[in-house]
Amino acid sequence: MNQPAPASSPPALPVSLAANPKLSSWLKFSSAGQVAISPGKVEIGQGIVTALAQIAADELDIDLSRVQMIRASTAASPNEGVTSGSLSIQQSGRALRHACAEVRRIFLQQAAERLGVDIDALDIEDGTISGPGNVRTSYWELAGEVSLDRDATPGVTPKIASRRALAGNSIQRIDIPDKVLGRPRFIHDQALAGMLHGRVLRPENARAKLTELKEDGARAVAGLVAVVRDGSFAGVVSETEHGAEAALNALRKGASWSDGEPLPDENDLASFLKAQPSESTVIDKKTAASPGVSKRTIRRQYTRPYIAHASIAPSCAMARWHGDRVHVWTHSQGVYLLRADLALVLKLPVENITVEHMEGAGCYGHNAADDVALDAVLLAKEAGGRSVRVQWSRQGEMSDAPFGAAMAIEIEADLDEQGEIVDWRHSIWSNGHAARPGRAAQPGLLAAFELADPFPRMISTNPPQANGGGGDRNSIPLYDFPSWQIESHRLTTMPIRTSALRTLGAQGNVFAIESFLDEIAAERGEDPVAFRLRHLRDERAKDVIRAVAKRAKWKPEKQPGIGHGIGFARYKNTGAYCAAIAEIEGAEDISVRKLTLAVDVGEAINPDGVINQIEGGAIQATSWVLKERVRFDRQRITSTSWTEYPILRFSEVPDVEVEVIQRPEIDPVGAGEAAHGPVTSAIANAVFDALGVRVRHLPIIRDRIIAAMELIS
Amino acid sequence: MSSVRFRLNGAETEVDADPDRSLLDILRRQLGMTGPHFGCGAGECGACNVIIGDHAVSACDTPLWSVAGKDVTTIEGLGTSERAHPLQRAFIAEQALQCGYCVSGILMSAAALLKRNPSPTDREVKEALDRNLCRCGSHNRMVRAVLRAAEEMAAG
Predict the structure, then answer these.
(1) In CATH, what number is assigned to the domain containing residue B22?
(2) Cα(A391)–Cα(A368) distance, integer angstroms
(3) Where are the alpha helices (DSSP H) in A94-142?
(4) What's the predicted TM-score (pTM) here?
């Protein structure tokens, strides 16, 4: 099952450190009293760089201001795969903590030797190592004598929680001053010497092929450097950005396209998902020792639409060729993974490709960040060794990037005479939730599917349950039902491109489970908080539920037009615990007035960072629930602007209150995806509390509420 | 090509460019002001907001010619690290962002609000920022930061 292994196994290196054991790949002492820390994880607006700096400074006993955080690059950084799944603190944080603890010990040994003092008599304060008789040295004095080009060893013990000075404190994020002062910090703001600008032409209709391209119009635009075409991939390179835009418009007028491939009916996603060919997997099965007697069975179906990542910034990348080597600047979540896919497309050894990270806007999963990098590489090929910057349009970002997969979820419960659950069956129909680059024998980058000699379009898959699962993420109940069977049907066709969106399938599954539980509790006339507590054995789970109930004064007195609901999950069943209570208002149009959350991430390295992530997740989930669905007709994606794909606005944002249950002795886990499922279900349950109807199809918008009311009338 | 004159962050500025080009493109590519960010190109998200006269305006759909003779303020003109604007200090104090791509535009909307209404209510702040989109969900922190800056400015 999904309980983490007990911590009694023999000492082992943290996973990221085991994969990248050389200590010097993680940190280096530079001459000017600084320490360069090189995590393989990247800043995507989640504040990870600050939390990792806190961990490193703590373990080394140096001031935070001495820490220089190095951006990930395939040229030098440890390979930590992808920055996703709320794993950066778990993976990079633990690796850095261990590496820094070991480096600290190595330097203490060296200092003891040099100073002729017993190692236990030495102390470190802000990098200065001192001992009895006023002897002193420092990391920087010793750096020349100590080689960190050696592998980390297990058995190093990092500091105990009470001896950490920084971790556990809400340190201000180190990237924020640049951002509020408008200093160039994002990849979008960087200009390389002699940089050209590129734009890529893409069809309106899904997967249409470019049949004819008249280039004269584009070639007549001032500043044009190249028109690039390879099959259905076409683009322009210009001396200026506005020249590239103008040339793209001209190129579009000269383009003829084949018919595209048909899209499903957006109004009947469940039928579409269930009718497609799929690969079925039993995710989990639990058998009761003595099965209860079923008196009746209830079955409910839930759906979630396709959801856009909808980053505020259109994706952007830069590339520059030098002979048969290429350097790429990207806001991808995984520099090594992107490099692997680029190598497949370009048919080059990975050594010829350097991929360097630069900050982008929040991506919330696998958006177009990787796609635009290949676009830039392909356009830069025709730029005579000059660098080319490519930026997608808003329309492209909203229609050509992968989406979070739509889901149909069916749950059946057998109830006994007392209305207690005796068996539980949960089935999911969905495309896979992951088609990230760098993990398959074929590339996952959009332009690769468009070339004259195209790669097959990647069909999304699901990570295994051991890694948190994909469409099945959080589908195994944490509740102690006597028996269950969980099944996942992953579609093997993919007319709408899907890949990882924050939480993968967890938002849909938690919505379904928590809505259904709420319904069963309501039918029994049992309080939904009490019902959940009664079915949980894990005290940390119960603690977040009790904490949120207390904080929201559960259950507030009933008022007309107002509803309250609760939702709970432990992200991936192994990550952060989170419980949410929503207070909503409305009839046909719902507004969420307040969200109260309690969260347990183990040791919260930066409690305000955790709160920020939970608040942000709660508000984003509210936006998903109240507003968001990718729109399409049978030919093309139609929600290509903020008007057609509205998200929550300032005037619509609920108050959000977050309580962090701090557990300094328990290994930290990430917070970025913990809130979405609980908040989604809390809102849906609050809608029932207010209106007496169960809306089982997201988003909870006016026509869904009316449809749900018609069902019961 | 023609010449357009305006005041940018207090300095007389003359730009030789096609007057139909967007102010945002001119600011970012010709004048090196990368604080205002491109988000949608249609005036729908506010990431590129600047202040023209007394109003926050999206620079992506403002043609260069239309700012002739006007005062344009970008985030770069709001404050510097040595002399940060109270709004910038408050955004740092409240840690009022996650990715921060939208924040320069939001600061300009907020600065325009505080100019015309130095002591806004919570609701008035939300109304003033309603045309700015934030995807990370940092809205409440931003509203708190604006109110904090207003208080600080009132206290002198």
Answers:
(1) 3.10.20.30
(2) 10
(3) 94-115, 139-142
(4) 0.96
- Angle in degrees, CA A380, A386, A390, rounded to 5: 45
Is A187-259+310-399 CATH 3.30.565.10?
Answer: no
Residue contacts between A and B (CB atoms, under 8 Å): 170
B65 and B99 housed in the same domain: no
Confidence of residue A276 (pLDDT cuts 50, 70, 90): very high
**Residue A278 and residue A485: Cα distance in Å, rounded?**
18
Task: Check whether A153 has a pLDDT greater than 90.
Answer: yes
Number of domains chain B contains? 2
Q: Which of B60, B78, B96 is the last residue of a domain?
A: B78
Q: Which of A45, A172, A185 sits opposite B95 (nearest CB)?
A: A172
Q: How many CB atoms lie within 10 A of CB A463?
A: 22
CA A170/CA A54 separation, integer angstroms: 10
- For residue A200, the surrounding DSSP H or E stretch is strand A196-201
Please tell me the distance from the alpha carbon of residue B113 to that of residue B128, in angstroms, as a whole number: 6
- What CATH fold (topology level) applies to the domain A15-179? Aldehyde Oxidoreductase; domain 4 (3.30.365)
pLDDT (average), residues A155-171: 91
- H or E stretch including A369? helix A369-380
| Strand residues in chain B grouped as ranges (E) | 2-8, 11-17, 49-52, 55-58, 71-73
The DSSP call for residue A632 is: B
Q: Which CATH number fits domain A407-433+470-712: 3.30.365.10, 3.40.1260.20, 3.40.50.40, 3.40.50.2300?
A: 3.30.365.10
Judged by CB atoms closer than 8 Å, whether chains meet at A241 and B45 is answered as no
Residue range(s) defining the domain that contains residue B121: 86-155
Q: Are the beta carbons of B134 and A177 separated by less than 8 Å?
A: no
**Contact state of B135 with A649 under an 8 Å Cβ cutoff:** no
Both B8 and B71 in one domain: the answer is: yes
- Sheet order of strands, A562-570 included: A562-570, A577-586, A590-600, A655-660
Which residues are CB-neighbours of A393 under 8 A, at least 6 positions away?
A: A199, A314, B41
